[in-house]
Amino acid sequence: MNQIDLDDMHSMVKAFPEMLVSIQIPKETRDLCVKLREVGLRGICVIGMGGSSIAGQYIQALLRESATVPIINVHDSNLPAYVDNSWVTIAVSYSGNTEETLASHEEAKKRGCQTFVIASGGKLISDDKIMSCITLPSDYQPRAAFPLIFSAVLHLVECLIGRELTDLSMIRETLTKKVTQWEASSMAPKVMAEDFLYSVPVFIGSRHLSPVAYRAKCQINENAKAIAFSSEIPEANHNEIESFHGENDHSVLPVFLRSVFEGERLMQRFDITTEIYEEEGFRPIRISIGSSSRIEEALLMTYYLDMVSVELADLRGVNPISVDRIMKLKSSLKQTE
Ligand code: F6R
């Protein structure tokens, strides 16, 4: 972690595997989670915006089939009415100062929820009890801190629902090995980025790869300052498919994120959708990365697409670190307070 150049997005993205294993949940926090589980928590609400919110979406999708309580995500300044004092909230804000996250976190405290916070500093940390607080290392770009945030949220939620903690060190090994293989193949991130240079990618995933599609869209937006979209199957089969019409803009590039865990029906949906898009004149790309678990597959694909986004930034001649328009918006809103 010491060798990461925090002014260089390539360096931060490269450190993805290492970041995945660098946050430990303190024993007192784990004990608190066990206690909350024993008294019968009714739901888990992950609060966050932008780069700090995406980890919650991954965890919701990955634990969808094993969690015995609802896991929801809130990307706004208010909470649904049903989040009451039998719920746990996890407020994630890398800066610790994001308006919407602070507002929802305050609301959770007023309602008597057990609140946890994950931040590198700011009001969120200063304001909370140490036992329910996970402090991230400072000076990263929030979106580059994804592996840190992901591991913290995952382990916190696993403790809360009584699931064995995922061994992220094995996944870290695979990520490190894969990057060398990708570089030496036609899958090299730089080569893939060239496909996105003169097109608008639409990342299409399913189940645990839906948040990966959304993350890819956001990384292309923020790092490469390029327009991108995301959607998911099967939902896209009931609306978006109509827009992949021969007379529409063929510079739109469907990028199918394919899982080795697709059941037969889902596989057929993806294959037939691909055929229809091809018949209409589009040139879909398929990205598939073999893996032994869903969680590893989601992380491998995220790591890969994160690298593609910074390569695309280079090709477009833009600085992947700066987020001028986000900063401008935040500061204009601040002046109106
Ligand atoms: C910037 C980024 C943004 C922020 C978002 C919320 O790198 O990714 O999407 O994550 O503006 O700010 P934080 O993460 O500080 O709560």
Please indicate the count of domains: 2
Ligands and ions found:
fructose -6-phosphate
Report mean pLDDT, rounded to a whole number: 95
* Content-based structural category: alpha/beta
Give an overview of the whole structure.
The protein is α/β, with parallel strands linked by helices. The protein folds into two domains: 9-161, Rossmann fold; 168-316, Glucose-6-phosphate isomerase like protein, domain 1 (Rossmann fold). The chain contains 13 helices and nine strands. It has helices spanning 9-14, 16-19, 27-39, 54-62, 99-110, 122-126, 146-161, 168-183, 189-197, 210-224, 264-279, 294-316, 324-335; strands at residues 43-47, 71-74, 87-93, 114-119, 133-135, 200-205, 229-232, 252-258, 285-288. The strands form two sheets. A five-stranded parallel sheet has the order 2-1-3-4-5, sandwiched between helices. The longest helix is centred in the C-terminal third of the chain and has 23 residues, at 294-316. Bound molecules: fructose -6-phosphate (F6R). Residues 49-52, 93-95, 98, 101, 141-143, 222, 323, 326 line the site of fructose -6-phosphate (F6R).
TL;DR of this structure?
The protein is α/β, with parallel strands linked by helices and 337 residues long.
